């Protein structure tokens, strides 16, 4: 198995299950034109986020790590008219691109982009959020998860992206700060009785990675 096979399979499924979408395509183009890094979730992952938010009947969503708002658009579209999404972004330029992309997608009313380091903006929020998507600097994953849990209710879902680190998560290498951040997160989850979780490895157009899905209990 190699990247060519993963690309072909992803294109096959996406061709059948994920129709072209002018607002999402425009968000990708605008983010590229603005020079943002190409590190948004793939379309099939965005659709997974959308389906999960729909399945839990989310009325309030929290996102940590906005970039150009690509995953934000997928998530916000699962909300009802009076739903709300708060997305946290440290980089003012990324936040400005996201706000423009959300306006193009007709979602500005439902989405608030908060600029600042997430560890500074999280304490300003009041929950509960029905779903949280964590996708920012991996070093602070455990702290973001702690906050997400505090801002959750029983039945809330917390999803964390990029947990595989090209397989390095399985190695305890102190020099790899991102992998260490992911390891600390899973050690925290493992010891937290209010949370039930699983981690999946994924392959596709964006390479080899994975995500963790956690359900908050009482
Ligand atoms: N969720 C986005 C998507 O799929 O479209 C991708 C997010 S990108 C992987 C990570 C984002 O987190 C970047 O825009 C980065 O600027 C932001 N970020 C990094 N450190 C942060 C921090 N401490 N607080 C808030 N945002 C941060």
TrEMBL record:
Keywords: Methyltransferase, S-adenosyl-L-methionine, Transferase. InterPro entries: Cation-dep_OMT (IPR050362), SAM-dependent_MTases_sf (IPR029063), SAM_O-MeTrfase (IPR002935). PROSITE patterns: SAM_OMT_I. This is Predicted O-methyltransferase YrrM. GO terms for biological process: methylation. The keyword Magnesium does not apply. One of its GO terms (molecular function) is O-methyltransferase activity.
